[in-house]
Amino acid sequence: MATKKTNFYKTRNKIVPNKELAAEILGIDVSEVERIDQEGAPVMAERLLLLWNKKNIGVEGWLFSRGVLKYKNQQWRPENLLKMRNDTEKIVKLENELKSMYSFNGLKKIGLHLIKSKVSKVSKIRIKVVN
Question: Which of 8, 19, 55, 81 is deepest in the core (most CB within 10 A)?
Fold first, then answer.
């Protein structure tokens, strides 16, 4: 006669088919997971698996699921967040550089640089013509 499967077993298999991972999430041994698969588990163990599977974090559209922060089906892992932070810092630096370039002093520096580069080109041409 086949044994009846417990609600915990059904929930665990939907969320975490791997017993080792389920044991790690719940903080118990694999043998304990096997035991509660057959005998049933405390309600909190099942709720913990459900919470691990999908956790709304309070901001509409954002959720924390299976160790990953998600928004609109895009995963936000630490590497992605660090890359976005670096990109944002680069954009801020470029914006500040543009602001300084278009200020009066910035335009003055650019003008002087262009004049110096033209003068140096003209002087090189004169040196070649004289020789």
Answer: 8
Which ranges constitute the DSSP H helices of 16-103? 19-26, 30-39, 43-53, 78-101
- Model confidence at 1: pLDDT above 60: no
Mention every residue, 6+ apart, whose C-beta is less than 8 A from residue 53: 15, 65, 66
Look up residue 68 and give its two tokens: 């990953």
**Residue 97's closest CA among 85, 86, 84, 109?**
109
Q: Give the tens place of pLDDT for each residue, 90-131.
A: 999 999 888 877 777 777 887 888 888 877 766 666 555 555
pTM of the model: 0.42
